[in-house]
Amino acid sequence: xxxxxxRPRPGLRDFYENPSVPVASGDARSLRQARMLADALGPAVxxxxxxxxxxxxxxxxxxxxxPLLSGHRVIGVDWxxxxxxxxxxxxxxxxxxxxxxxxxxxxxxxxxxxxFSEVIEHLVDPDAALDELRRVLRPGGHLMLSTPNLAAWxxxxxxxxxxxxxxxxxxxxxxxxxxxSEVVGHLRLYTxxxxxxxxxxxxxxxxxxxxxxxxxxxxxxxxxDRAACLLPSASSILLVxxxxxxxxx
Length: 249
What we know:
The chain is of the alpha/beta class. The chain has helices spanning 12-17, 27-41, 60-65, 81-87, 126-136, 153-160, 192-201, 222-228; strands at residues 50-54, 73-78, 93-96, 111-117, 137-148, 205-212, 237-243. Helix 4 links the parallel strand 2 (73-78) and strand 3 (93-96). InterPro entries: SAM-dependent_MTases_sf.
């Protein structure tokens, strides 16, 4: 009797190492987030800051933000070798690292700010991730986090109609029961209230919450999507400025 050895099924790590999986997000979100960070850091001539772009993907967000963060040192961090290979075309400093399984290869309090853009929704253990972000931030350091909004204005209507919300995924192999066609590996989604409470419970002080549009909204609805940013709890993307307690500012 012969046995056939089964090939192991691809896991979540393999999914994110797949070059066909999208790793970039919209420029509008990147610009709004960069403006928030630039305002928080102040001019680089006064005190150049070290900024960690954790989950930097292909570096396109850092490229969009570069004019607003001129003079500050931005270091890209990602666990995907393929993403880092692409990021090197946009960023001078990149580091391979993970938020779990031993943590980032970075010293305590080494960063003045962390960009955490469209990452938290992909994590199995977001609690450990926020612990690690707090560790690498100096006292008073800034966290700029963005994530899709479960309670976006169109998701509220979709749920009322019994349709799976945009951004939510039930499979890594295909889209089922909701609009859209790209599988990007979202594991968790947050409302504005849940995200604020989660950050506070994780030891951060929430300074400001804002909204950003989603580049995937159909063109006829984009004006409405931009208007929804005036009410962050209904916007497509949640932008949060939080701080690690301590420090002088």
